Amino acid sequence: MKTRAQRKIQVAVIGAGLMGRGIAQVFAAAGHETALGDADGDVLRAAPGHIARNLEQMGEEPGAILARLRLRASLDEAVAGAGIVIEAAPERIELKQRLFADIAAAAPRSAILASNTSVIPITRIGQDLDPQARSRLVGTHWWNPPHLVPLVEVVHTDHTSDAVFEDTFALLRAAGKSPVKVLQDVPGFIGNRLQHALWREAIALVQRGVCDAQTIDQVVKQSFGMRLPVLGPMENADLVGLELTREVHRILFPDLDGGKEPSPLLGELLGRGHLGMRTGRGLRAWTPAQAEAVRERLALHLIALRASAPPADPEAGPA
Predict the structure, then answer these.
(1) 17-45 pLDDT, tens per residue?
(2) What number of helices (H) and strands (E) belong to the chain?
(3) Catalytic residue among 115, 116, 147, 153
(4) Which of 25, 70, 131, 231 is 20 to 30 A removed from 202 (C-alpha atoms)?
(5) What Rg do the C-alpha atoms of the chain give, in angstroms?
(6) CB atoms < 10 A from the CB of 251, how many?
(7) Is residue 116 flagged as an active site residue?
(8) Would residue 141 show up in a list of annotated catalytic residues for this protein?
(9) Among the CATH numbers 4.10.910.10, 3.40.50.10540, 1.10.1040.10, 3.40.50.300, which is that of 192-260?
């Protein structure tokens, strides 16, 4: 008998924004009938056009993939018959808690319940669910843009059944993703803890007047950032040797920013209405053309990496 990962199942994605439509694209491209739900009719109706443009940019024909996509304004209709339901709603814990209460009531009692939150502990999201539903709740943190970035963090809570955890991992691998297992439900999981540790120090350096924001980006992109695709931090530590690593840490760690609150610089910028690219200024200044060029450059870079990467092996185990 085929496992859930080996057969085509019905997938429901709740939330048709940037992340949700990208996740739905991945499953539809993998051959799964996929329902995409959103209470905002405009967002829902726009999703197929965005997916079609993604696929055309990737050099793929959208017709067959879009044919497996079903738009559903009603949550009950979206999750009916689903083997897995993935929530891709905004990062507000009360919203996610309400959504999962509704999803657990409407979806089949065998369905995997997955949240795409990037930082909220999965246990908190499911704290009000009954034990049977909590055993089916798992984290699946996809990265933006989800149709191009291969990694998905699969998060096990104290309540998640091992079968659900393994089935989710295998289903994502079979869909062409590169899942990793997060064995403890910590805020931010793995990737965002690493990413925001870097951001904390980067913003602190700007606030201290060590350099400007543009210099930060140049230093990262033209030094250790060039190595990261082929040399991870643990590999690099072993490469240079743990004696040197420890000596560097003895000198460096006492001077690193250890703040437990967001940087005051962020508060100052937000207070002046500098929200980032969408307002024309954040840590750096942006014209609309510059902002669009960054998005285009990122997409083309990821597409090129995807084209050169070896295909995922659905039968391979985790590293």
Answers:
(1) 999 999 999 999 999 999 999 999 999 99
(2) 15, 8
(3) 153
(4) 231
(5) 21
(6) 8
(7) no
(8) yes
(9) 1.10.1040.10
Catalytic residue among 33, 118, 135, 156: 118
- Residue 146: which of 319, 304, 17 has the closest Cα? 17
Write the single-letter amino acid at 150: P
Question: SS3 sequence, 103-160?
Answer: HHHHCCCCCEEEECCCCCCHHHHCCCCCHHHHCCEEEEEECCCCCCCCEEEEECCCCC
| Active-site residue identified among 141, 147, 156, 159 | 141
Kind plus residue range of the DSSP H or E element containing 300: helix 288-308
Catalytic: 118?
Answer: yes
Please tell me the chain's helix, strand, coil percentages from 3-state DSSP, rounded to the nearest 5: 50, 10, 40
**What is the token pair recorded at 28?**
């539809």
Q: What is the DSSP letter of 312?
A: P
Q: Residue 1: what pLDDT? A: 44
**What phi and psi, each to the nearest 5 degrees, are found at residue 190?**
-105, -60
pLDDT tens-digit readout, 101-125 = 999 999 999 999 999 999 999 999 9
Helix pair angle (191-207, 264-271), 10° resolution: 80
Residue ranges of domains in the chain: 11-189, 192-260, 273-309
Within 13 A of 274's CA, how many CA atoms are on the CB side? 13
How many angstroms separate the CA atoms of 98 and 128, rounded?
9
Helix (H), strand (E) at residue 231: none
Mark whether 192 is an active-site residue. Answer: yes
